[in-house]
Design brief:
Elements: H1 2-11, H2 14-48, E1 59-60, H3 69-74, E2 79-80, H4 82-109
Antiparallel strand pairs: 1-2
Helix pairs in contact: 2-4
């Protein structure tokens, strides 16, 4: 029973629950971004580039000629689906950009507290404790802090 109790304490700890919620929300956000890329962004980009459907770009590695990804999947043909890879890269870039914007806003809302200036030794320039009377690095006798 000791291991069960230990696992229970671990599983209900705040950080684990927060992380689980973050993973679930992240997965849902990933699906939204994938839909945005596949259904909103890539069709106009393909149209601007001459009507290209990026999700249907592939290199056939099999011996049977196929014209679409659907055909290749139906026949279990080996293909290099570089169009789907391009869509995934765009997904990643959008997600990374949105996360960057969120972190940037969080940093503006909650700035990091400024550190107090640290006392340094006049002889070796190493950081020392405020109450120190002797430098622990070079053993110089220090003046009392005023």
């Amino acid at each position: 029973m000791g291991m069960y109790k230990e696992f229970k304490e671990f599983a209900v700890r705040g950080n684990v629950i927060d992380m689980a919620v973050g993973v679930i929300i992240g997965g849902a956000f990933g699906k939204i971004v994938s839909s945005l890329v596949d259904n909103i962004i890539m069709p106009p980009v393909g149209l601007l580039l001459g009507g290209i459907d990026f999700s249907n770009l592939f290199i056939n590695l099999g011996k049977v000629p196929v014209t679409t990804m659907a055909e290749a999947k139906e026949l279990n043909m080996p293909v290099l689906a570089y169009g789907q890879f391009l869509n995934t890269v765009v997904d990643f870039l959008i997600i990374a950009f949105v996360i960057f914007l969120c972190i940037r806003q969080m940093n503006k809302i909650f700035p990091k507290p400024k550190e107090a200036p640290k006392r340094t030794c006049d002889f070796c320039c190493e950081v020392i404790a405020d109450a120190a009377t002797r430098c622990p690095h070079c053993t110089a006798i220090l003046e009392e802090k005023k």
